[in-house]
């Protein structure tokens, strides 16, 4: 297990880089949801999560999330995007 954690932290493999970006995107999405609920300090969390993304794909996904309402992604996934 330590080896996997080390690989993740070192960003040594494509899988580790993907996992790391996925983790940061999930944190960013949580921050967006908290901001929508009125939590004043959520923006720092959002900015920090966005800054830690590694791949261009991760950054594009983050920018897409930042450009919409906090639950638009869920409405789209549920086929409610009208």
Overview of the molecule:
This protein is an all-alpha fold. The chain has one domain. It contains five helices and no strands. The protein has helices spanning 2-10, 14-36, 42-51, 56-66, 72-77. The radius of gyration is 14 Å and the shape is globular. The protein starts with a helix and ends in a 5-residue tail after the last helix.
Distance between the termini: 45 Å
**Content-based structural category:** mainly alpha
- Helical amount: over 70%
What is the overall silhouette?
globular
Number of domains: 1
Any low-confidence stretches, pLDDT <50, length ≥5? none
As a whole number of angstroms, the C-alpha radius of gyration is 14 Å
Number of helices: 5
Question: What brief labels describe this structure?
Answer:
single chain, 82 residues, mainly alpha, 72% helix, globular
Write the layout of secondary structure elements.
Elements: H1 2-10, H2 14-36, H3 42-51, H4 56-66, H5 72-77
Helix pairs in contact: 1-2, 2-3, 2-4
Compact summary:
With 82 residues, the protein is mostly helical. The protein has helices at residues 2-10, 14-36, 42-51, 56-66, 72-77. The model has no long low-confidence stretch (mean pLDDT 88).
């Amino acid at each position: 297990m330590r080896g996997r954690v080390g690989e993740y932290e070192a960003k040594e493999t494509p899988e580790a880089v993907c996992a790391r970006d996925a983790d940061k995107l999930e944190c960013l999405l949580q921050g967006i949801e908290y901001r929508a609920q009125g939590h004043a300090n959520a923006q720092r969390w959002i900015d920090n999560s966005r800054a830690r993304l590694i791949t261009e794909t991760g950054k594009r996904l983050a920018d897409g999330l930042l450009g919409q309402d906090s639950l638009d992604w869920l409405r789209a996934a549920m086929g409610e995007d009208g």
